[in-house]
Amino acid sequence: MGNTSPLRGFNTSPLHSTQLSPAHKGECAQTPTITPEARKQLRYVSKDGKCRVNLCHISERSRFLSDIFTSFVDLQYRWFLFVFMMCYTTTWFLFAGLYFLNAYLRGDLQPEQRLNITKNHLLDQRPCYLGVDDFISALLFSVETQRTIGYGSRTVSPTCHEGVLLVMMQCIVGSMIDALMVGCMFVKISRPKKRAETLLFSRTCVIANRDDQLCLMFRLGDLRESHMVDAKVRAKLIKSRQTAEGEFLPLEQSEIDLGYDSGSDRLFLVEPQVIQHTIDSNSPFWELGPEQLRRHQFEIIVILEGIVEATGMMCQAKTSYIETEIEWGARFEPCMTLEKGSFKVDLRRFHATYPVPLPNCSASQAQQFLILKDYKLHDPRGSTEWGICVEETAEEDKDKQSRPRETRRSREKEGMTCSKRLRLE
């Protein structure tokens, strides 16, 4: 009794190939009607995996400067390119101003000083920066120095010690900027964040009977031939709740078991796989039927993690399902067939579902019916409603209980009549 599933007998025959039967052609699953208000429902995580949480009134923004590398990597590309260009442009103009100021203070920019420079370039008359006579030429000298272009027309004099020091400083600062910017650009381009774009999640979840147990299922897939290494999937339920003390928890997170103990959450994601959550007494959906699912507001967050085979970096993909994206009484269509010695995956059927018979009753109610009424969940006349089964079983039980009472009374009456006859005789 205790090990018997409340959904026994409602399994339908699985599809053994991707060819749909005539009964299923043109038939859609029991998808709940999505109202305009439901479409506008604010999600905690969007369908493409972006967390819709904005942090505001951050008082200690200096914490981001302590981790400047991560701050640069996390910037959007347009802002990162802006910072990239500003770093180089700022250093070029900064050292160009220093070169121009140094030349101005030494008097190298005066006309008579430039006229004293003969073809022999005497050391005592040679300027600090040869070929630098205005700010534009100083800017070109700064760019040529930091980028090591070296056209040869502009040089620094070895007798100008402050000029040599400025050139050394610019080389060091330029090398630091190169290391930071090139490193950030390399990490940003090679980040596995874009790898998540080739990981597929089904648009909806389905609830159906599998192995005599009610299960919530969704489908995962990978578009690339280079597969994820050590792929793992987990899910969380986000909903609001009020505690016994009256505290309101707007976004309480609870874990949804996807087979952690049995290892079912660790995937070899070569072909699309259907992930299931068994709705048992430990499940948050234990007491929820189709009507309760439509009334409750919650969100299921699915997180897929794995190592990218090409780079060895960790990749994470996320999606979410709200209550209107759960199909009660449906299964996913098979999308894989065996053709010419290899398996073929038809991704056109990745999101497709087909309806299956399923009672409009929660797993908790089904378990209670099974324990109290002691019946098998199989209707030989094709009934799929729990209420019909319970009423028929209750009537049969009443008949069984009333029959022994009638036989006892008839036997007592017969015994009394027999005793009266014996006395009269």
Automatic annotation (TrEMBL):
Compositional bias, Basic and acidic residues, is annotated for: 397-415
* Subcellular localization: Membrane
Q: Please note every region of biased composition (Polar residues).
A: 1-21
Catalysed reactions listed for this entry: K(+)(in) = K(+)(out)
Where is it predominantly found?
membrane
Its signal peptide is none
List the InterPro entries hit by this protein, alphabetically: Ig_E-set (IPR014756), IRK_C (IPR041647), K_chnl_inward-rec_Kir (IPR016449), K_chnl_inward-rec_Kir_cyto (IPR013518), Kir_TM (IPR040445)
Looking at the UniProt entry, the stretches that span the membrane are 79-101, 164-187
List, alphabetically, the GO terms of the cellular component aspect: monoatomic ion channel complex; plasma membrane
Which PANTHER family does the UniProt record give? G PROTEIN-ACTIVATED INWARD RECTIFIER POTASSIUM CHANNEL 4-LIKE (PTHR11767:SF100), INWARD RECTIFIER POTASSIUM CHANNEL (PTHR11767)
Assembly and partners?
Associates with KCNJ3/GIRK1 to form a G-protein-activated heteromultimer pore-forming unit. Interacts (via PDZ-binding motif) with SNX27 (via PDZ domain); the interaction is required when endocytosed to prevent degradation in lysosomes and promote recycling to the plasma membrane.
Q: What protein name applies here?
A: G protein-activated inward rectifier potassium channel 3
What organism, scientifically named, is this protein from? Myripristis murdjan
